[in-house]
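FYI - complex with zinc ion, inputs then prediction.
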Amino acid sequence: MKSIKLFSVAAVAAILIGCPGRADAKLRVVASIETLADLAREVGGPRVDVEPLSHGYQDPHFVQAKPSLVLALNRADALIYVGLDLEVGWLPPLVQQSRNAKIQTGQPGNIDASSAIGVRDIPNIPADQLRAMGDVHPMGNPHYWIPPDNALAIAHLLAKRFTALDPAGGAEFESRARSFADRLRKKGSEWAPSVARLKGQKLVTYHKSWSYVAAWLGLNEIGYIEPKPGIPPTANHTAQLIQLMKQQGAKLIVLESFYPSALANIIGRETGARVVALPSDVGAMSSIRTYTDLIDAIVTALAATK
Ligand SMILES: [Zn+2]
């Protein structure tokens, strides 16, 4: 009797804990934004089940906490997130509530994608001081996932981290990351003519979320509609920005569709600049299902403004 009871306890424990090394068990991955979810699918293929916690049409700084998100986190073998405080307003409490030891900070299942990239705009003022001033980028600029070099660096990080969680899949993860790199190289030559035409254009954005894209495309960022990242526009700042744009001949304003467009349109009319609403994440529009769809959409929309 005793041995039967022990067996059943062990069986239940095995089901509850899960065992990603088993041939029939997939690694359960959750990602804070849809682009990271898509990169996880690229690398993980049939060995992973991936669930995004937010939608690409939402502002990733502010995602509504729902019980379904806690449940997804509770079941996860791995959590991938942007980091650099992007999700600080919503994700840490959910991770805590999930009571899932595997995805807590410092565990192999806790994957901070920002560790793969070179962070821009690292402030020289202490983070706490910047947070107190309302700056939502106190750790550096977290909007890094769009340029192909960064997406590729994240894919390689995921291959490494998935291998640690599912060693039997190691060769497959590496080979999938390499074929993603090959596809990006091919797409890169398709994008090259449009990208070349954009070089040197002066750019104003609503939020400081296009700096990595500007660096990739050779655009020259001259200002932002928000006075500081996360601080709503003011009349004074707007007047100064309009003056600067006129002086510098800036003819392009870019914003994500979840930011209010009315002020951008007024600034556009005052300065003769075009206002372009760009997708910033997979899922921003129903036609953007993958990372390469996202880059196609951004490059096409920007090239159309020239
Ligand atoms: Zn931001």
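The first strand starts at residue 27 and ends at 31. The chain has a mean pLDDT of 92.
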